[in-house]
Amino acid sequence: MPFVPVLHAEWIKIRTLRSQLGALAAMFVTIAGLSSLAAVDADSDPLFSVYFGISFGQIAAIAFGTTAVSSEYRDGALRLTLTAVPDRGRWFAAKTTAIALPVLAVGLLTGFVSLLVGRAALGASAPGWAEGVRGAVGCGVHLTLMALFAAGVAAVLRSGVATLSVLIPFLLIVSFVIGDFSGSVADYLPDRAGQVALHSDWGGALGPWSGLGVTALWTAAALAAGAWGVRRRDA
């Protein structure tokens, strides 16, 4: 089966799951909603104040990517899928594309709406437009990479519960326990590296785009491991 029909089939699966649509809505509401509180902590970093909700919104992105993949391992669904699409590599590529596109679209929308709301809340302390647009784009890209990272891990673990049990505590620990310590090994973890693009002045070794690059490397590794698992293990 050609790639486009496979992609269309995977998109139908995603948009017919209420939990998937709920995850996208939660991502938008959490980040854009918390941006209205930007003025509370504007003195430390105006740009990150606008995107303060990213630490919570990325959990919704992770849930989206996890559920999209783990649902295939319930009740023999993957066996039926691979009967229709015997090329496992093509199927996994279509699945990850069907995950990436809606998260990127909603992520970019979330980034720009958060920027507008945050600038209105901050007033004269608001970040400049150039910096703000970089943050909005970084927000969309970071959320997409985190969703794909989770998808790769879910393909390895073959369980939504196991994937979320590993990733969510990990992210909460990194974001809230050691998140204030920049310039350390924590800066190179997928969660922290991608968020550098959302800071006015980070002060660590990574810049906005190199930080996203590090997260992209983590994501590529997770997807490569997931693709290997899909190809080599029984459905």
Description:
The chain is mostly helical. 73% of the residues lie in helices and 0% in strands. The chain has helices spanning 3-15, 18-34, 46-50, 54-70, 77-84, 88-122, 129-157, 160-176, 190-194, 208-232.
Tell me the span between the first and last alpha carbons. 19 Å
In angstroms, what is the radius of gyration?
18 Å
Largest sheet: none
Strand content: under 5%
Indicate the structural class: mainly alpha
Summarize, please.
This protein is mainly alpha-helical. It is built from ten helices and no strands.
Q: What topology emerges from the helices and strands here?
A:
Blueprint: H1 3-15, H2 18-34, H3 46-50, H4 54-70, H5 77-84, H6 88-122, H7 129-157, H8 160-176, H9 190-194, H10 208-232
Which properties best describe this structure?
235 residues; mainly alpha; 10 helices; 73% helix; 0% strand
